[in-house]
Amino acid sequence: MRLTDLLHPHLDDVTSVVDATSGGLRLDPYLHLPPGVDLIREERPVGEGELMLLGYGPDPALHGDEADCLAALARMRPGGRGLIVFGHPGTDLPYHRLLDALVARRCQVLHAAALGYTHLHAGAVFACTEELLPPHDWFGRPLPADGFATALRIADEYVLADFVSRSQRARLLDLERAAEETARALESAREDGLAERLAAALRDKDQLASALRGARARTGLLEARVAMLEGSTSLRVGKALVSAARSPRRRAARLPGELYGLWRQRKAMGRPVRAVSAAPAPEAVTDDRFHLSHRALSVAPRDRLVITGVLTDRTAADFAADAVVSRVLPHDGRLLIERTDPDVFLVQLGACTGETGPWTLTGTGHAPDLDRRLAELIAQARGQGRAAVLWRDGPASSAPGLSALPWDAVIDGDTGTALARLDPVTDGRDRLRDVFQLDSTRVRLARLAALTGAPDPTAERRVAVLAAPKDATDVARLVAQTLCQLHRPAEVVVADQRGLDLGELTAASVTVHRGPPTAPWVADWTDLTEDRPDTLLLDLLCAQEFSGADAVGHTPDADDYVFVPALRPLLVRRSLTGTGTPPDAWSRAGHRLFAVRGKEPS
After folding, report:
1. For 101-143, how does the pLDDT look when each residue is reduced to its tens digit (9 = 90+)?
2. Euclidean distance between the first and final Cα of the chain, in Å?
3. pLDDT digits (tens, 9 = 90+) for 507-547
4. Order of strands across the sheet with 521-524?
5. What is the CA radius of gyration of the chain?
6. Which CATH code, of 3.90.660, 3.40.50, 2.60.120, 2.60.290, is assigned to 305-431?
């Protein structure tokens, strides 16, 4: 929730807002006060028709000191209202330190909500009153209650909410304790396993070095034998006879001379040879490195998740849209892990329990050779410092042998659904939104990337908004349209920020800057008078991920989920915006344009 959403429902009959915050945080860019409501900063009592702003948090220099907050509460008078913002997270809110002061000044809390800013996490609206006021619901609307009924409601809700919160806090403490114990056990296991893997790697290195020395010795012996055979008179005579037989006209006349020369050379070899001083041949330089017949070099940073493992056909095809996927076979797994250097060695349970496939029956106990090969691949991947992850998309009992292997992590659940496999007509827009946000393969891969420290595939969904606000009214519309989006933009590009305060966007983790956009997708919002529903970017990105198009937008004919030759672009690939090609020529240049009809949220 934004601060303005919490504040504005309580501004009826309020003509002035008194800023009583003592920290360095300025709240006026967040308020967007309506006309007729003035923001002032004075140390005076606050009564009828006025609202006081207070701040309290863990950083006194930013949020304000507790003593200053309590002193400001002492200036509240009947009829006055107040808004206190907290820098503490909602679960750690120290409301007990202000509760006595609120009660002493006859202040009743009407509404409390979480705020979506990096340094402001919660806020509460209160009123100084001589009688009990009806509380407000989540949307800030007063509940239909008064007098004794209001008191009963507050008392009942307090007891029930305290009961629920106590059980939740106890469960949270248990989970935190279990997480700490698991982290310590995992760290200990990793340390123990690291020594074992290092010893195994040294043994493998010694064995490979010994095998290499033996191979080189055999190669030297074979080369000496080949040189001896090539220098023998019998071989040279045979070559001369074969050459003469192949070309009688040209070679037959020269045959007697060649044979006589060979006889003279052999006769000379039998004579004693006079010693001739010669420089010693340079010693051959040994090389212990392996050389590959095919070598490639890439200096670009790795910006995609690299997966090598055991996957089903469907999963491999879906993952390949957002990651580099290599599927191993029982006979080439060791070489593939070494050559691809993956971020993760991934084994899908469904690929081991399927009816067909090279890894069928793995982990079931019916194919011990496959179990052994898989264990070797896991050891190799972990020896290279790569995580070995089991994706358990089925019951563990179907392949119990997999659970006994030394996995670095186990993911339970399906591998997600690719949006391209859905039917917008049958499944509906709501289904597309839900899959995009929660159940898509890209979301599942983001979870895998977080476990391995690899690039996040959902970073490809970042959107940059191009805007040109001119005054405070445009700023208010830009902030409202940006922060209300169900898929919030990652950055806002403003060419000229002079005289404009966009601090609320920065506080909401939206980057504001000048210059070219850095996000993969660009939306042009230079016309701030246009109404944009909160599902706009979400629907545009759903259509893009469904189609793989380079630009998504509307058409005059209201085409929906269909490729078109021309459209009004609303979401464009950043690389396309830098080509200089006008939008009406994008289709002729080979770029894909996809139309989606704008709809209000259902």
Report:
1. 999 999 999 888 899 899 999 999 999 998 888 777 666 677 7
2. 20
3. 999 999 999 999 999 999 999 999 999 999 999 999 999 99
4. 511-513, 491-494, 463-467, 521-524, 568-573, 551-554, 593-595, 562-563
5. 37
6. 3.40.50
